[in-house]
Specification:
About 30% of the residues lie in helices and about 15% in strands. The protein is of the alpha/beta class. It has a single domain, classed as Class I glutamine amidotransferase (GATase) domain (Rossmann fold, 3-Layer(aba) Sandwich). It has a four-stranded mixed β-sheet with strand order 1-2-6-5, with helices on both faces. A two-stranded parallel ribbon has the order 3-4. It is globular, with a radius of gyration of 16 Å.
Length: about 160
């Protein structure tokens, strides 16, 4: 057992205590749990807004895209408005039997006029894709985690 890892897990930081400006990349992982809090967090929205204004790379996979919902551009409009983005689709949420979750990324992003893109193969509930729009990189689902992370690292390499 890794005592240090256990200690960090048991004493994880609150989002309020993390200075996003200390990081080169902010990445929001998905999973069903993200649908219960990321999209409703004013604190996360404020921190994403600040990070975006500084040009920090922002990324998400699956339900993690809900973390963008409360973020704003410097002019006050929703950060996602007009942005090419992807996340788990409504079809995939339904096929996975998790429609009981409170927020569904495709629906929520479309409400804010994001340019939602997806790859939904007829018979493949795990059809996937990755989308880049400026400093924002989003992945459709868990199968896009690797390509999404790799793209963020390539973008970081270009700007450093």
């Amino acid at each position: 057992k890794d005592k240090e890892a256990q200690r960090k897990t048991e004493n994880s930081l609150k989002i309020d205590d993390v200075d996003f400006l200390d990081y080169d990349i902010i990445f929001m992982a998905g999973g069903w749990g993200a649908s219960y809090d990321l999209g409703q967090s004013e604190v996360l929205g404020k921190k994403i807004t600040e990070a975006n204004a500084e040009g920090i790379l922002l990324g998400s996979v699956c339900h993690g895209a809900l973390g963008f919902l409360k973020a704003k551009e410097t002019d006050g409009k929703p950060l996602v408005e007009g942005k090419k983005m992807t996340a788990v689709t409504d079809k995939q949420v339904e096929e996975l039997g998790i429609s009981i979750t409170p927020m569904h990324p495709e629906n929520e992003l479309r409400k804010l006029n994001a340019d939602f893109q997806s790859n939904t193969a007829f018979r493949d509930m795990f059809a996937t894709m990755m989308v880049v729009d400026g400093n924002i990189v989003t992945g459709q689902n868990q199968n896009s985690s690797g390509p999404t992370a790799q793209m963020l690292l390539r973008l970081l390499d270009r700007i450093q």
